[in-house]
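Notebook, bench 3.
Goal today: get a predicted structure for ADP-ribose pyrophosphatase, mitochondrial from Drosophila suzukii so we can plan the truncation constructs. The sequence was checked against the plasmid map this morning, with no discrepancies at the termini. Length recorded as 307 residues. Pasting the sequence as submitted so the record is complete.
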Amino acid sequence: MKSSELSLLPLLCLLLTLEKTLISGQMMSSLVKPGIFRHLMCRNNMYPRSSVLRYPVSDDQVFWSEPYSDYCPPVYTSPHIGGQVWADPPLPSDTFRPQWNQLDGQVNRKSFHGAYKLKDGLPLNPIGRTGLSGRGSLGRWGPNHAADPIVTRWKRNDQGAIVTNPTTGKNILQMVAIQRSDNKLWAIPGGMVDPGENVSVTLKREFTEEALNFTDKANMVEQFFKEGGVQVYQGYVDDFRNTDNAWMETTALNFHDEDGSKVGQLELMAGDDATSVRWTDVDSDLKLHANHADIVREVVIRRNAHW
Ligand code: BGC
């Protein structure tokens, strides 16, 4: 490191502390903010389940405000979404006229990051370039809305006492994580919000389908979710499927079983889009799909848990 860089260190530390305070203090959308956040997962790679290479985009070419005159991303929409009930028809079209930036019948075409722009009749990714036009494997043009339940309990020993980390002295949090069948990464057991569906219904449905896969404790699970979760994030997700014209957004809520007597007791069983499910210790080594680890970090801050 150069000495000029060293002298910047205190300022950097201050900025990082401020950012942390901001994140813990208020809105999570500060995690993935248009104009600051640059794509990590959906740039400079092969589009998943295809042989389509994204057009190169360097760190400083991500934002639409940066000129990039040679930018010429391939157009790709996965053949498997054609004709699916959950997917939009192709564009341009004489008959399909989506109502952008609003509730379009039952389909929510609003972004949590404000009004997105349109270019040549197609919605523009609010973060910036991804190196790919079209919808890729996402069903909707513009925002595709998901919901993520972060179900947590405290880690306990055989005697039932909460386990703390010897270094930080803080309680260790555990969360239910599933292994996604599409990219094999561990993730929050979330899913897509169906048209017209209330997010609270999606949260319970996805958790039950992906992590429990049975219904014999249905009443208890129902009650646990009804008691309510704490919203920890609402906004853009740095998903590997995002394109210049279609992207993921999510609403994430934390459902915490404080004494471990409810969902904390359940045997987990992988189902639906999950190949595996487990209670996972939460700490700074946690590697999850997309920016799920950042979302979980917010739960850690709120619960003052070990990280
Ligand atoms: C997943 C959600 C995730 C979203 C964005 C959906 O397929 O079910 O858990 O937040 O994609 O990556």
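The two ends are 28 Å apart (CA to CA). The first helix runs from residue 3 to 6.
Flagging this for group meeting.
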